[in-house]
Fold these 2 entries.
Entry 1:
Amino acid sequence: MAIREMNDLVQSGLDRSIELMTLAAHNSFRFKNRNTVKIISVGNEEIASIGEFCYSLGDMSPLAARDGRFAMELIKEPCGFILLGDKRKSDFNYNCGACGYKTCAELNKAEVVESLTAWGPSCQFKNINIHIAANAAASTAWKMGLYCRVFSTLGMAAFALKIIEEVDLVVGVVVSAAKNDPFFDRHKYWTKEHWDETFQKEFPTFTRGFIGAVEDEGTFKI
Amino acid sequence: MSIEKSMKQFEQDRLEAARIASRLLLASGTTTPRVGGVGECTIHIIDDPCGIEDLCQNMESMSCENKAWDFFKRDAAMLRDADAVLVVTSLRCVTDPADINCNMCGKMTCESLRETEKLPGDADVAFKGPLCVFRANNISYAVDGIISQARNLGIDYGVFWSVGAAAMRMKILPHVTGFALAVAISITEKSPFRDIPLKYGEINERSMNDRIIKRLWPQFRSIYS
């Protein structure tokens, strides 16, 4: 019997897992049985360009920058990324009002608003169907023992870069078979000094001893 | 066939199983992902038959308020056979947009979504949008967490937006709820949520029992006794 090395087995298992996640997402519950969600899987090259794009948005969105850096780290070990998307218009005829229009016909006639992240306005139930599919993929990954996280940032970047086409709304599911859980913590992206400075800026009252006191370089005045 | 003691015991245990299962489903739905890791969903269990009936009657009355909601009657007929209902809410989609300017709602910034007038609370409006779509999407994860666990436990389930809308209208959910969906579960030999014939709102096991057994059989018995 031929001997297969662990790295080969892990990569092969990961590839198969991504197929099974896609299958679970494809067969997940959908409102009104509308199986219109488009699902694709992308490789390291695309993940790298998505990561770079996210990182370039650092001035506007620290979260995107963090996820961009994270994506660049992720591809150093076996990983996978599936993208799920759909069109924004409603084919449900629920007339539920969640989108802000009284009827689905009004929503479908509304002028499209284009942006890098998504095109709106969008049907709430279209979104629900996409995200139920995303969770079905994530729960399948969880059952197979893969490290997994759902990313809106990376999904939106993939949309901006037109990596997934003919959709208006996108979300991404990342899985990893790294030696350690890459989602457990991401401390390595921040120095202690930067973290302390940001925390102090965002939560200045955390160390304040008395309500009404004014902070002035470490001293409190009333 | 008479109802033996052991059969009654089975019925009690079946309902107890549904009660326990609904709590396990709540656990699974609660721990699913939330965008940005910000909690905003609550899950409410209704396993009292009177509570479920209240929901059904509300759905039936809502079915007359919008032509597109005619199927609420069918949903109510299915829900009457459910052993428990889990209603999942989104608590931030009206009052607290995600502030990431995602444009899914059709507004380029969350600030303009805040400034947009919401739909009026008319009878034919289920959810007073526009909602923060990004926030409301969290419900999908909670609902699929419930579905995923129901499948693990081998429990039949049905997902209904009509029930969420009715529960909101009945004001039995937290007051900031902007969007709600529901998962009904059943522990019976035949799933009440599958193989639904046409006109199920009118013709179902309950109405068949009423018309055939409770109405025709007493007449037959009177005449042929």
Note: Chain B touches chain A through 46 residues (CB under 8 Å).
Entry 2:
Amino acid sequence: MGSSISTIAGTSCLICNTLNTVEAIYCRECSAPMGIVYDTIAQQRDPHIVSVVGESNVGKTVYLGFLLDMLSQCAGNFEAIPKGAYSIDLQQNVISHMANRRFPPKTPMEPNQWHWAYYQVRKRTRNAKWIDLIMPDMAGDSLAAEMAAPDTFNAIRNLLYKSSGTLMLIDAALAANGSARPDFFAMKVLSYIDSIGGGKRDERIKTPTAFVLCKSDYCPECFDDPRQFAKANLNRLWNLCESRFENIEFFACSAVGALAYATAGEDGGDCVRPIPLHTALQGILEPFEWVIRQI
Amino acid sequence: MSLKLLLRKRNVEKKENREQTARRGKPFEPAEPLKLDTDQLHQYVQLERYGLIAANPKHWEGHPDIRSVYRTAMERIDQTFAVVPEGFVSLPQTVHDYPGCPEQDIETQPFLLACCAVTNAQFQKFVDTGGYGDLNLWAKDIWPHLIDFKDQTGAAGPRFWRNGRHDKNLADHPVTGICYYEAAAYARWAGFRLPDEAEWQMAASWRIRSSAHVLRRYPWGDALDTDRCNIWPSGVGGTVPVDSYPLGGAPNGALQLIGNVWEWTASDFMPVDENGKPIVGDMLMKSIRGGAFDTYFACQATSYFRTGLPCLVRAHNVGFRCALDVRQSRQQ
């Protein structure tokens, strides 16, 4: 859980606790936007951080954009209220691109250019309490760089350290094709989380972690039994989870109903460009709802 | 293994089973097998293969009941199919539809379109009579793939069935988990065909040749109404019986052209990009139309939104409906 303090000397960053001047727009240490810090102070509640992590191009932005959009339309068992206009940027970016059969642009590496979302979420039942959530759209390349050389991106280190829950996106289509890359990347992330937590060897990590098998429309067996799919296709990850992580669950999801490829860029240059022909959302809310129930 | 570990393992297994049951929703109830009439002509009526009877009544000459059976078949076609008048449609050729994009204008002839999508119960009849084993119903190039058209238990049938049977609770829901070839084989077996893309669009947009040249965005008019169709914003979250949403019908009574499930058509889907270069998929794509219960964007569930799906994909949100030539239905 993150918390920040505002004094005459300045405001401490929600993510890395560095003291920043009142004029600061971004944290001088981790580059997190200070606007989100001021908003959480105004709410007088400590927000929970839910991290969405995964390899570059796995679909984190699309997943998070649809998730926030669905929540703001009161889909599923939860309702959500965005706090601050910047919180809507991500879902607007994803929705406007996907509705026009375009994937949103790649998330920049610098944390001050990510989309940060601050939402208040609660279960749609009487007397349910509101939970404040901070969900940044991290760049997969930044995560990879941070794991390769720790302290390259302070924001990532601090976000993962303070996360109350994690949604780890894994490319199921790639895993089903026999590639070990998703397996290794997920293992790296878990090892990294394990190391920054400083847990002892016999102490299992309790942070709820939902493994979201993305692009599952390519391998429908994922939806039949995501656990079985993970056991069979992500065996290294499965074993690591068994030994080190206590609170995990596997989910399948897909956002694109059919994918086609243009053989030229929009400027006419040579490149292969994926085109999401239509959307068919499956399994977007379930991992999030599971994580929130565990918090 | 120690008793403590054994108990822990059992508890984990129990928890897994509970979670799996909860995930799958209601328990699967296999549909009862159909008791078929011994007489082949009566069997055709029982199996709803009206198209075959309508197309070739002379084949049954000499059968004592042919006149009454033929009349029954024609009545059933009258009741379950709707006439789509001649008209014209414009199909945008580019994958990104924009004002002024190249379009193909197509004149459509009058035809009959099934009022509803084919249900699980109807498709069960095709499965029960060995449709998957009858090679005459399948295009020759698909024969090597027939062994892949299995259900959850490895029996021949749609992807979400078990032991060749559909879930009784979903008998009147559209059949899903079938690829284009399975849809086409059923239509051929029943004596019908799949509509092509232009015909489908004509039925949904109702663009009759007139001075007004009116094109409907939805079969019921131009404004989206989530009480008239089952798409994601309707908040249903799954398929519904094929005769639901009577207010969402086209003027001729065809229901659920928008929403519930996408529908396979007989046309290839081969759009081009802004530079005229082809858009390619993993395999040959067939056009699907109308949107489904999980179509998030209302703009993708209209009478004119074009999209496609690889022809062998057996998706959870794609079904089909049959069509029939007017000429065929009038044969005596």
Note: Chain A touches chain B at residues 66, 73, 75, 98-101, 217, 220, 223-225, 227, 257-264, 266, 268, 275, 277-282 (CB under 8 Å).
